[in-house]
Amino acid sequence: MRFCVLRSGSSGNCAFLEHGDTRILIDAGFSSMKAGIELLDELPCDPVPLSGITGILITHLHSDHINISTLRFARQHGLKLWIHSANASTFSKKFGAALRDGIEVNTFALKKFAIDSLAITPFMLSHDARKSTVGFRIHPADHPQSALAYAADLGTVSPSVVDHLLDAHTILLESNHDEKMLWDNPDRPLFHKKRVTGEQGHLANRQCAETLARVMEQSGTKPTTIILGHLSKDNNTPQLALDTTGACLALQGISANLSVALRDRRTEMFEIGLTTEDDC
User: Fold this and answer.
1) How far from the centroid of its chain's Cα atoms is residue 1's Cα?
2) Is the CB of residue 223 less than 8 Å from the CB of residue 216?
3) Strands of the 105-108 sheet, one edge to the other
4) Per residue in 219-244, pLDDT tens?
5) Which of 20, 68, 171, 239 could form a disulfide with 278 if both were Cys (CB 3.0 to 4.6 A apart)?
6) 59/152 Cα distance (integer angstroms)
7) The whole model's pTM is what?
């Protein structure tokens, strides 16, 4: 299984995951259909896998994860959508019948389901999107030990979230802001600071680091790769996010392969557990 974060941040989120012939996107907050094609052009695949993508898993309904361009892109290229069942009514009201026409929209509950060769377990996240926000634990159906745990856009970490991160091969976890930078930022109003730091906002670097330290301590099999995601443009830096988590883990004598998902360029393509000859 292979995984790449194409963009991560409030200006747009999209990740790519493949296992054999199964290829999906996690979110697709494109600014335009052209931007979506350009993102996929960045993938180190020949040919670009657009025609082979099955569909898009949606974490929640904020516009940096799904918007009108997402639906137009899905219709143009025959991509299916998967959304949490609690979001179905809000999704229909937000995007009218004309926008939804011709798109297969599937719903899932908080139990394991499958997309082709991938087994997917959604789990609830605390975030202020309408209805529900979810993370995903994804692995090949026949290799549960080769799991990706994906949790972005959350304001606090529940014991259930920690459980879904345990023993994952690769983890993407939000590391949105440095608390001091946020509170000292004169260009951000107080209501924004309260929203971001609230229990339904976004994780601070410190919260991310402490969560990952707990996961490392409790996992029987330590994650091979940790990706820090959804960094704030003006209240964080990639190096600060890396340093905060790295220092927290170092205090426990733990070293880890840390990476950052950025808003303006893709990550490397990460190998998750077993690979197949079919990978692009």
Assistant:
1) 16
2) yes
3) 105-108, 80-84, 55-57, 22-28, 14-19, 2-7, 270-271
4) 999 999 999 999 999 999 999 999 99
5) 20
6) 9
7) 0.95
